[in-house]
Amino acid sequence: MPRINLLPWRAEERKEKKLAFVVAILGATVASLVAAFGAYMMLNAMIDGQLQRNARLKDEIRLLDKQIEEINSLESAKQKFIARMEIIEKLQRSRPEIVHVFDEIVKQLPDGVYLTSVKQTNKSLKFEGVAQSSTRVSTFMRNIDASEWLQKPSLDIIENKQGQTAGSSFIMTAEQVSTAAEDETQGGPRKVASTGGAR
Predict the structure, then answer these.
(1) What is the model's pLDDT at position 193?
(2) 114 in the same domain as 90
(3) What is the pLDDT of residue 107?
């Protein structure tokens, strides 16, 4: 019976198996490297996308903050404009008041009373003058108290003079009636009829 030497065939088979194993290891390594690189690239892409979204959100937030500042500045400018308009409207309503006040002073000034000085501080009026008697000063105060444009008369000083120019010098205060303030509380203009006093 012939003998067959199987050693070279077995060695060759082991060599082929070892080569296949090495190729499989190399393939698995390459596949792992490719998968890892793909995952790395995908993560980088996701991170870049998120960073871009964050940057866009920051830009939008800055834009919104700027718009809010503009809205606030516009609101402040609107309030200032409204305040100016109210002041102008109040001045327009109160502009003829001083004319009425001086006209009313002339109307309510009785005969025998002469004013030497009239000073106004805000709504307060200060009268300095000379009267033929203290009774005339009292009449002047009553006329002011009944006036539509003047109110709250108060006598500060009255002095009786002796000599050729006998009479009484006096200092008196009163307050101007502001129809503009009344218009604001009543919501509209009001006609005021002035009444003349005895002279």
Answers:
(1) 35
(2) no
(3) 84
Q: Please identify, among 95, 112, 143, the residue that sits at the C-terminal boundary of a domain.
A: 95
**Intervals of the chain under pLDDT 70:** 1-7, 94-96, 162-166, 179-199
Q: Residue 197 falls within a domain, yes or no?
A: no
Same domain for 109 and 40: no
Q: pLDDT of 118-139, one tens digit each? A: 888 878 889 888 888 888 888 8
Beta strands 150-161; 167-176: pairing state:
antiparallel
| pTM score, whole prediction | 0.44
Asked if residue 194 belongs to a domain, the reply is: no
In SS3 terms, the chain reads as CCCCCCHHHHHHHHHHHHHHHHHHHHHHHHHHHHHHHHHHHHHHHHHHHHHHHHHHHHHHHHHHHHHHHHHHHHHHHHHHHHHHHHHHHHHHHHCCHHHHHHHHHHHHCCCCEEEEEEEEECCEEEEEEEECCHHHHHHHHHHHHCCCCEEEEEEEEEEEECCCCCEEEEEEEEEECCHHHHHHHHCCCCCCCCCCCCC
Residue 62's pLDDT is 92
Instruction: Provide the pLDDT for residue 35.
Output: 92
93 within 8 A of 187, measured Cβ to Cβ: no
